[in-house]
Amino acid sequence: MKQIRKGLIASCQALPGEPLFGSDTMAKMAKAAEAGGAVAIRANSAEDVRAIKQAVELPVIGIVKRDYADSEVYITPTPREVDELIEAGADMIAIDATQRKRPGEITLETMVDYMRSLNIPIMADISTLQEGEYAASLGVTCVSTTLSGYTPYSPNLQGPDLELIKEAVHKLTIPVIAEGRIQEPSQVEEVLRLGAYAVVVGSAISRPQLITKRFADAARKAVILLNGNE
């Protein structure tokens, strides 16, 4: 936790079907992030965690995104994914800590107790302050605002949930990590001023197809305006 304090955590992830999908590519992306000043990497899947650990000297926060038929929870939803990440060498594991039903009737309490028994630091991904307060009461290491806007009962915002970050920093006694829709360096500065312990940036760094789209959309918009003025 001391190593990531007030720093940038680069989320290096690519899903099947995306251009950069593959552990070798994600390891290179992580290496580039390290060269750019990232203090840690957040990575999806045991394969990617293992490859990234071999490529960089930074701590790696691991997750496994896996769908289960009986639940909407997909970020490290069961002990099975925890075991995979520990075997791969993850330094911290992030889990969904929302109030939604988990696969197989597994509870958040069960997950946290299991992970604490293994002495692995726990990042609790939350979407509301109440979820953060509950996760903190269970003994997680830190909370992250990752899932704000991705549950049906949290606000759907264009940018980061600044209100949640501010309230969580004020109410909780554990570190609050700012994550979710952070697209600009100015937003990184803003969430740190609000008291965030560290900042996670994902798509704006590691999904070039989305980065390119932002510039391409700007070009198309400019052409439309120019044609309208002719």
Order of helices and strands: EHEHEHEHEHEHEHEHH
Global shape? globular
Count of helix runs: 9
Distance between the termini: 57 Å
What's the SSE blueprint?
Elements: E1 8-12, H1 23-36, E2 40-44, H2 46-55, E3 60-63, H3 79-88, E4 92-96, H4 108-117, E5 122-125, H5 129-138, E6 142-144, H6 162-171, E7 176-179, H7 185-193, E8 198-201, H8 203-206, H9 208-229
Parallel strand pairs: 1-2, 1-8, 2-3, 3-4, 4-5, 5-6, 6-7, 7-8
Helix pairs in contact: 1-2, 2-3
Protein name: Putative N-acetylmannosamine-6-phosphate 2-epimerase
EC number: 5.1.3.9
Enzyme class: isomerase
Structure description:
With 230 residues, the protein is an alpha/beta fold. Strands 1-2-3-4-5-6-7-8 form an eight-stranded parallel β-barrel, surrounded by seven helices. Helix 1 packs across helix 2 and helix 2 runs parallel beside helix 3. 43% of the residues are buried. The model has no long low-confidence stretch (mean pLDDT 96). It catalyses: an N-acyl-D-glucosamine 6-phosphate = an N-acyl-D-mannosamine 6-phosphate. Pfam families: NanE (PF04131).
